[in-house]
Amino acid sequence: MSISKKIKAATSSSSMIRKMFEEGAILKKKFGADKVYDFSLGNPNVDPPRDFEEELIKIAREVIPYKHGYMPNAGYMETRQAIAAKINRISGLNLAGDNVIMSCGAGGALNVILKALLDPEDEVLVPVPFFMEYTPYVENYGGVIRRVKTKDDFSLDVAAMEATINEKTKALIINSPNNPTGKVYSEK
Questions:
Q1: Full-prediction pTM beyond 0.70?
Q2: Alpha carbon distances (Å) from 169 to 12, 18, 173
Q3: Fewer CB within 10 Å: N-end or C-end of the chain?
Q4: Residue 152 lies in a domain
Q5: Which pLDDT score is estimated for 52?
Q6: pLDDT below 50 — which residues of the chain?
Q7: Do 101 and 116 form a contact (C-beta atoms < 8 A)?
Q8: How far is CA 164 from CA 9, 22, 124, 134, 143, in A?
Q9: First to last CA, the chain
Q10: What gap in Å lies between CA 21 and CA 36, rounded to an integer?
Q11: What is the pLDDT of residues 145-185, one digit of tens each?
Q12: Which of 46, 64, 82 marks a domain boundary?
């Protein structure tokens, strides 16, 4: 049995950022890790704080029933309530724990959200440049990526976004700081 043509094409070549990462690894071996700065994937080059590591070890040693078992699909309610409370403090909203669903990372969350929202040919707007994985996330559910230009400093061009919105627009993906530029968008 062979894999699909789509997956074969996707795995036959690396994205530019992956090529940069792989080249960086070669250069680090050749010249020393202290002489090569890798700005490709966003891997941290410092260890987490020692207090954080110690807290993780403490939690790992706790005796908790089903610590390594399944949890409710939406996540533990106490965690969801804590997240809702933080969002409420920051935004002035009035969310409850029931309004929060946990996921395994942003990619997992985006896939679930896009699966829930998209019908074939629905459009998802993304400011450029953008994290290239958004394309397969959207295409997995029959959607179409619509690229929206940004300003010269990579800030959002609201007029360009508004001009791109049409009857097929279902979502707008904005991440801040932006990946790959690092641009932090203002609240305005």
A1: yes
A2: 31, 30, 11
A3: N
A4: yes
A5: 96
A6: none
A7: no
A8: 30, 36, 10, 18, 15
A9: 52
A10: 11
A11: 999 999 999 999 999 999 999 999 999 999 999 988 889 99
A12: 64
Residues 133, 28: Cα–Cα separation, whole Å: 26
Dist. CA 8–CA 115, nearest whole Å: 23
- Structure tokens of 7? 């997956």
CA distances from 45 to 30, 49, 65, 102 (A): 18, 12, 35, 28
Per the structure, the complete domain to which residue 166 belongs is given by 119-188
Residue where the block lists tokens 């490709």? 40
Chain-centroid distance of CA 22 in Å reads 21
Per the document, the length of the chain is 188
What's the helix, strand, coil split of the chain in %, to 5? 45, 10, 45
CB atoms within 10 A of CB 118: 21
Strand-by-strand arrangement of the 144-148 sheet:
144-148, 123-127, 169-172
Q: With the C-alpha atoms ordered 51, 57, 63, 68, is the resulting torsion angle positive or negative?
A: positive
In one letter, which amino acid is 166?
N
Residue 20 resides in a domain:
yes
